[in-house]
Design brief:
It comes from Taishania pollutisoli. The chain is mainly alpha-helical. The protein has a domain at 447-536. The protein is built from 22 helices and six strands. It has helices spanning 23-33, 39-48, 50-57, 91-114, 121-131, 140-152, 158-166, 169-174, 188-198, 215-224, 273-281, 286-299, 306-322, 328-335, 353-362, 372-388, 418-430, 448-453, 461-472, 479-490, 495-507, 512-531, and strands at residues 228-231, 242-245, 255-256, 265-266, 437-439, 442-444. The strands form three sheets. It has a two-stranded antiparallel ribbon. A hairpin with an 8-residue loop joins strand 3 and strand 4 (265-266). Helix 4 crosses helix 16, helix 9 (188-198) crosses helix 10 (215-224) and helix 20 (479-490) packs antiparallel against helix 22 (512-531). The longest helix has 24 residues, at 91-114. The chain starts with 22 loop residues before the first helix and ends in a 7-residue tail after the last helix.
C-alpha cells in the first residue's frame, strides 16, 4: 500500500485555482466530493469547468424517507415511511419492529450514497456524522431525526447545527443529556461539546486547563445544558420522539466561565440559556480554526504541515468568521483553491471502506432497482459489508468518530490493516468474478457491459484501458501496469480481436455467446485493477 503522503504540497494558497483544467483535476475534485464519480460525470465536469462544477456540487437534493419493507414492522404500512408510527405494545414485538426500522434506515443511508448524483451532500453528511459521532438510538425514529438534521444543515450554518444537535433526541440519549438535571448533573455532552464539537482540546497548560477551556467550563456547561429530556421512546402511543424542556430539571444558578471565554457570566435563562452559552463559545475564533482543520483533513489531507497551519487554516477560518459560521463558503473556497489541486495532494489519501465499496458501483453506474424488499435487503447487505471493513455507517467506534480521521501518525492508513485489506480483496472478487450478491433470486454485480458501453470508444482496447484508468485511479500508472491490464482485457490476443468481439456483441447484444466473453474480460480487468495499490488511494 502506498504512503498516504507521497511528497508534501508545494502550493499553499487558498486563492482560486487558475491552472490547467483537465480530466485529472476534474476527477480529483469529484473523488473528494463524491463516493465515486462516473466516466460521464468526470467528462461533464471537465467540460463545464471548475466554477460550474462547484455550483452543481453545492446543491443538496431533496430525498424521500426510509420506507417500511420488513415483515417485522407491524405498525407502519409496507412501502410507507415509519418515522411517525408508534411501536407495538408487546416488548418483544417492539424490539423486532425496531430491528426492522434499523434495517430500513441502514438501507436508506446506503441507497443515498449509491444515488448521490453530482452533489457533495452525502460526503458532507458523512463528515458531520463523523464529527457528531453518535450511534443509532434505542428508537429508530430518533436515529432518523439525527440523520435528517445533519442533512438539513449539511452545507448550512455550523452554529445553528450545533444548537439543534445539542437538543436532538438522539444526541440527548447518546451523551446522557436526557438525564442531565439540576439534581444529577452529567458532564458527558458538556465535555464533548467543547473537546470534540466546537473549540477542541488543546495542550494542557495547567491543572484542568486545556488551552481552549478548563474543567470549570465543562462543569458550568453541564449545568447550562440541564432541563432538556426526551419523551416517546419506543412508545405505543407517541407517533414521534420529542425533545421537551422541564423547568424543574434546569439549574437556575448563574454560571461562571473561565478566562478562555473572557470570564463571561451566563445568567439563568431557562430554555434559551444553552443557546446563549453557545453564542459565547462561538465568539472564540478558535472554533473556526477547529472546524476548518477537520474539513481540511476530510477533504484534502490529514497532514497539517506548518505551511498549511500558517496559510490555509487561517484563510479558511477567516472566511468562516466573515460568514458567521456558514459552512458552504468555506467548502467552496477550499475546493476551488490552488492548494487543493496541488499535484502532490492528488492520490494522497487512502480510500475509506465506503469509498472503496461504492466506487465499484458508482464509478460504473451500477445501481439497485428491484422491488422494494429486494432492493432494501441488498442495500442493508452493503451496509454490513462496509462494517466488515471498519466503517459501519451509524456505528462509529467511539465518540471521537473513526480513528482514520484523527489518529496520528497513520490516519487513513488505518483503513488498510491486514484484516480489512483481505476483506477489500474479497469484495472486489465478489462483485466482479464471483456470482455476486444474491437476494431473493436477484443478483447484484458490477454492471460491466453498460459501463463499457458508456466509455469513449468501447471497440478500441487502448481507449477502454485509458478510460478505466481515468475513472478509477487518481494518478497515471506505469507502462508495465497498463500493459498488464490490457493483456487481461485482450486475453492475450491482438488488439483487432477485441474490436471484432465487441462489434459482434453490438450486432447481437442479448446473445450470451457474444456478450459473456466481453463481460468476463472486463470483469477480469476490473478485478486486477482493484488489486492495485493505486486503486486504494484517492
Amino acid at each position: 500500500m502506498p504512503s498516504s503522503v507521497i511528497n508534501p504540497p508545494t502550493n499553499h494558497s487558498l486563492s482560486p485555482y487558475t491552472g490547467a483544467w483537465t480530466n485529472a483535476q476534474a476527477a480529483h475534485l469529484l473523488r473528494r466530493s463524491l463516493f465515486g464519480p462516473s466516466f460521464q460525470q468526470i467528462n461533464q465536469v471537465t467540460s463545464d469547468g471548475l466554477d460550474a462544477a462547484i455550483a452543481q456540487l453545492m446543491i443538496i437534493p431533496a430525498i424521500g424517507q426510509p420506507l417500511t419493507y420488513d415483515p417485522a414492522e407491524t405498525i407502519a404500512t409496507f412501502g410507507q415511511p415509519w418515522q411517525n408510527s408508534p411501536y407495538p405494545t408487546d416488548v418483544e414485538a417492539a424490539q423486532e419492529c425496531d430491528t426492522a426500522r434499523a434495517k430500513s434506515l441502514g438501507a436508506w443511508l446506503m441507497q443515498r450514497i449509491n444515488n448521490e448524483g453530482m452533489s457533495i451532500a452525502e460526503k458532507m453528511c458523512f463528515f458531520w456524522h463523523n464529527h457528531f459521532a453518535a450511534i443509532l438510538s434505542f428508537d429508530q425514529r430518533s436515529s432518523y431525526n439525527y440523520f435528517d438534521l445533519i442533512r438539513q444543515h449539511a452545507l448550512g450554518n455550523f452554529k445553528t447545527l450545533i444548537k439543534e444537535m445539542t437538543n436532538n433526541t438522539n444526541m440527548l440519549e447518546f451523551l446522557n443529556g436526557a438525564t442531565n438535571t439540576f439534581y444529577s448533573p452529567n458532564e458527558n455532552y458538556a465535555r464533548e461539546f467543547l473537546e470534540l464539537y466546537t473549540i477542541g482540546k488543546g495542550i494542557q497548560i495547567g491543572p484542568g486547563d486545556y488551552s481552549n477551556y478548563t474543567e470549570e467550563d465543562v462543569a458550568a456547561g453541564a449545568k447550562i445544558f440541564t432541563g432538556y429530556t426526551v419523551e416517546g421512546l419506543r412508545s405505543s402511543t407517541y407517533t414521534s420522539v420529542n425533545t421537551i424542556y422541564v423547568p424543574l430539571y434546569h439549574d437556575n444558578s448563574t454560571k461562571q466561565l473561565s478566562y478562555h471565554f473572557n470570564s463571561e457570566v451566563i445568567a439563568s435563562a431557562g430554555p434559551v440559556e444553552y443557546s446563549n452559552y453557545i453564542d459565547v463559545v462561538f465568539q472564540q475564533n478558535e472554533v473556526a480554526y477547529f472546524i476548518s482543520r477537520k474539513l481540511y483533513r476530510f477533504f484534502v489531507n490529514h497532514e497539517l504541515t506548518e505551511e498549511v497551519e500558517q496559510n490555509i487554516i487561517p484563510a479558511m477560518a477567516a472566511i468562516m468568521i466573515a460568514n458567521d459560521y456558514e459552512i458552504q463558503p468555506v467548502v467552496e473556497a477550499l475546493l476551488k483553491s490552488q492548494h487543493f489541486y496541488d499535484a502532490n495532494l492528488i492520490g494522497s489519501a487512502i480510500r475509506s471502506p465506503l469509498e472503496m465499496l461504492f466506487s465499484m458501483f458508482n464509478c460504473t453506474g451500477t445501481t439497485i432497482n428491484f422491488d422494494l424488499a429486494t432492493t432494501s435487503d441488498m442495500y442493508i447487505s452493503l451496509y454490513y459489508l462496509g462494517d466488515t471493513m471498519g466503517q459501519g455507517y451509524g456505528t462509529p467506534p467511539s465518540v471521537s468518530g473513526w480513528p482514520a480521521y484523527y489518529q496520528a501518525p497513520n490516519f487513513t492508513k488505518l483503513w488498510v490493516n491486514g484484516t480489512h485489506l483481505k476483506n477489500r480483496t474479497w469484495l472486489a472478487y465478489y462483485f466482479t468474478l464471483a456470482t455476486g450478491l444474491d437476494v431473493n433470486g436477484e443478483i447484484l454485480k458490477i454492471q460491466t457491459i453498460p459501463f463499457l458501453n458508456g466509455l469513449s470508444n468501447p471497440a478500441n482496447a487502448n481507449n477502454v484501458i485509458d478510460d478505466i484508468i481515468r475513472v478509477f485511479l487518481p494518478k497515471p500508472i506505469s507502462a508495465a501496469q497498463r500493459q498488464i491490464l490490457k493483456f487481461i482485457l485482450l486475453g492475450g490476443q491482438p488488439d483487432f480481436e477485441w474490436t471484432i468481439q465487441y462489434n459482434e456483441y453490438l450486432a447481437a447484444p442479448t446473445d450470451p455467446t457474444y456478450y459473456l466473453p466481453i463481460q468476463q474480460k472486463v470483469e477480469l480487468t476490473l478485478f486486477q485493477l482493484f488489486q492495485m495499490p493505486e486503486y486504494h488511494t484517492v
